[in-house]
Write a structure and sequence with these properties.
Helix content is 16%, strand content 37%. It has four helices and 16 strands.
Length: 227
């Protein structure tokens, strides 16, 4: 199973320039561009009918679809199956061969990728959807307001309860945890004039900006955090 983060863009040129600045590798296939490093892959599409979300690719989803249809509405269009978690995050299930991009030897300037974060009105139902897709509980607790689910490829999905994050939350957001290196990464992004959606001080007793939130042109959020 292959996981790709899907983002529609109103301006392909602007999106490609944005990800190039962040030091992602770019690979064009037809009207679609893939921005990727050794950690993750984003599919940038100019199809304005699409929405930011997740795209899972494998040859057949027949078993999973039987399970998902018990409690989720599935729309099938041109051989692609669409559903949404209670967060509103779109999920695509594509029945096709996994494809290979040219190998990347680097990480982007965003640092250490930790996985996807979504804020959801129903963690338990969201977890049930991802369990059907092969994810298992790996960290966190419902009483603490967050739970992380991981699949056998070490893809992480963190489900956040409503009102648990004291900052803006773009659904969905890719999360990067950089520890003490985060200050250097924030400065590097400033030096490149990457627009910062929010400077987060809520986790620092001295009111320092030690976390930031970015928004790429297609609508995905990036949490660039220290932990």
């Amino acid at each position: 199973m292959q996981l790709i983060y899907y983002t529609p863009t109103p301006n392909m040129k602007k999106s490609k320039e944005y990800f190039s600045k962040l030091d992602f590798d770019l690979h064009q296939i037809g009207e679609t561009c893939y921005a990727y490093d050794q950690q993750l892959c984003l599919c940038i599409t100019s199809d304005k009918k699409q929405r930011p979300g997740l795209c899972f690719v494998k040859k057949s989803w027949s078993k999973e679809l039987d399970d998902l249809r018990i409690f989720a509405k599935v729309h099938s269009v041109d051989g692609v199956h669409y559903l949404a978690s209670p967060s509103g995050t779109w999920i695509q299930l594509r029945e096709e061969e996994e494809f290979k991009l040219p190998l990347s030897q680097k990480k982007s300037l965003l640092g250490n990728f930790a996985g996807l974060s979504v804020e959801t009105l129903d963690i338990e139902l969201s977890a049930r959807i991802f369990a059907c897709l092969g994810f298992e509980h790996s960290m966190g607790d419902l009483d603490k307001g967050w739970m992380t689910y991981t699949d056998r490829h070490d893809n992480n999905i963190s489900l956040m309860a409503p009102f648990s994050c004291p900052h803006l939350f773009l659904n969905p957001s890719l999360t990067f945890f950089n520890g003490a290196e985060n200050h250097r990464i924030i400065q590097a992004l400033r030096d490149l004039s990457i627009p910062i959606l929010e400077e987060v001080t809520a986790f620092n007793k001295n009111g320092m900006v030690d976390n930031i939130i970015l928004s790429e042109p297609g609508g995905y959020g990036f949490f660039v955090f220290n932990d």
